[in-house]
Specification:
Blueprint lengths: L7 E5 L4 E7 L8 H12 L3 E5 L2 H11 L8
């Protein structure tokens, strides 16, 4: 088994973007195996985010992946 896998692994179906999200609370830090996983993900052109609260995650996601709007 692969150690250090992020808490959430997802795929945005419209864009094909893979995202891995690690959630840390307080002063918690990435363990060495999590650092290794983060490096693997970033080298594969997927996204890896370290989030300390949900609002920073949502803001980052919408900044990079604007929802498509239908023409009126």
């Amino acid at each position: 088994t692969l150690k250090g896998v992020s808490d959430v692994v997802g795929l945005h179906l419209e864009t094909g973007v893979m995202i891995c999200v690690e959630v840390k609370l307080g002063a918690d830090k990435l363990r060495p195996e999590q650092e290794k996983f983060r490096k693997i993900i970033r080298e594969s052109d997927a996204e890896y985010w370290l989030c300390r609260e949900i609002e920073s995650f949502k803001a980052g996601w919408y900044r990079k992946h604007q929802p498509k709007r239908e023409a009126a």
